[in-house]
Amino acid sequence: MRQRLKPWMLPIAMLAGIVFHDFMGKIEFIAPYLIFIMLFITFCRVRPSEFRVTALSWGLLSVQVIGAVALYFSLLPFSTDLAQGTFICVFCPTATAAPVITGMLGGSVPRLATFSIISNITVAILAPIFFTLMGSKADIPFMETLTTISAKVMPLIILPLILAIILLKVAPKVHHAVADRQAVSFYIWAVSLFIVVGRAVSFVMDEPAEAVPEMMLLAILSGIVCCLQFWIGRKIGRRCGDRIAGAQGLGQKNTVLAIWMALTYLHPVSSVAPAAYVAWQNTINSAQLYFKTRRDSQMAK
Predict the structure, then answer these.
(1) What's the whole-model pTM score?
(2) Nearest alpha carbon to residue 283 among 222, 238, 237, 209
(3) Domain spans of the chain?
(4) Which CATH class is domain 2-300?
């Protein structure tokens, strides 16, 4: 029953977020804590001996960073909001639940978990710099903005990794127990999705009618970017021996973190892009899980 329900958990969470968006203001403060817990569980999945930076990691990372910057500057002459929205959809790190989905689809969990760590550390280092240069708050000095963003973003991503390493050294049995509970991050992700989608919907509902065309364009662009990232990731993964890990590593994003960062540090309307990305990527994930489950059932007969 739980396996049958799993492919539908994410659409249910999104739909619930849309329906109950008016209540998100009371619980949105827990979103960063949920992100922290998800990252911690994911980082416990990789032992130091399994941490190997391969060609797959470098290929996916180059698209994540260089591709994001290229898209930003390509769209900046047309609209700052479009540029920021598409940027965050590519620059955002791999989803904490991506290793779980990868394992369910038959890909290499350690390889993707390793890339997840690299992807998140890269964002922790570069996000404060990029967000400061994008300058949504031009009246604040560069170094003050950089320090403020760094103090909020870096601990959120780096501390779970440090805690996972310390736990491995101090209490290996507990570390092993956490590592074996990767499915928990999937359900935490669903709760986080419920919150951030509701928060994004509340913001969209408050926007004036004249902003609707731009928001629709952001949603369309995020869909194009989503499909391209799954496709490019699969191409890179095929060359490196794991097309599933490649596709999920580049295409499946931590949209919870992306929406939170967009609402906090970029122009809030840019959050429509990662909010729409939630629907696009989870439609793809749900379809993949459905067809994989159906194939497995047919083979078992």
Answers:
(1) 0.75
(2) 222
(3) 2-300
(4) mainly alpha
pLDDT surpassing 90 at residue 203: no
End-to-end CA distance of the chain: 19
Task: Give the whole-angstrom CA distance, residue 113 versus residue 193.
Answer: 20
Q: Do residues 219 and 270 make contact, with C-beta atoms less than 8 angstroms apart? A: no
Output the CA angle 41-100-85, nearest 5 degrees.
85
Whole-angstrom distance, CA of residue 151 vs CA of residue 127: 11
DSSP letter at 66?
I
- What DSSP string describes 115-171? HHHHHHHHHHHHHHHHHHHHTS-TTS-HHHHHHHHHHHHHHHHHHHHHHHHHHHHH-
pLDDT at position 238 over 80: yes
Q: Which pLDDT band holds residue 138 (cuts at 50, 70, 90)?
A: very low
3-class DSSP state of 106 = coil
pLDDT value, residue 61: 92
Separation of alpha carbons 269 and 205, rounded Å:
11
Confidence tier at 263 by pLDDT (50, 70, 90): confident
